[in-house]
Specification:
Oligomer: single chain
Largest sheet: 3 strands, antiparallel
Distance between the termini: 29 Å
Number of strands: 7
Number of domains: 1
Strand content: 15-25%
CATH superfamily: Pseudouridine synthase
Radius of gyration: 17 Å
Order of helices and strands: EEEEEHEE
Number of helices: 1
Strand order of the largest sheet: 3-7-6
Shape: globular
CATH architecture: 2-Layer Sandwich
């Protein structure tokens, strides 16, 4: 019997625990086209912030995420975790795709 609390999975469609299917609550998939300004890092990892490059592309959505969380009719139990699709250099500007669709990042 395994007694670990954490397991790594690769793009699961179904998770079984003791023979029972674990209910997955999937969030609505969101896709944004963003004109990335100069000085933003294309990552969602807060640990990458430092004094020279303190801003992440996903930080541009912080006000929207606050408004989403404050809506009483919001079915979102947690705010969506956003990912950048692809990368642009911190000093570059241009079109970026940002999504909460983490499954799109899992390719076999």
């Amino acid at each position: 019997m395994h007694r670990h609390l954490q397991y790594n999975t690769t793009c699961p469609l179904q998770i079984l625990v003791d023979g029972n299917t674990l209910a997955l609550h999937r969030q609505k998939q969101l896709y944004f086209a963003l004109n990335k300004p100069k000085g933003y890092i294309c990552s969602n990892k807060a640990s990458l912030r430092d004094q020279q490059t303190p801003r992440l592309v996903v930080d541009l959505f912080s006000e929207w995420l606050k408004r989403l969380a404050s809506k009483p009719s919001s079915s979102q139990s947690l705010p969506p975790r956003l990912y950048t699709v692809g990368r642009l250099d911190v000093q570059s500007t241009g079109l970026m795709l940002v999504t909460n669709d983490g499954m799109s990042q899992c390719k076999e």
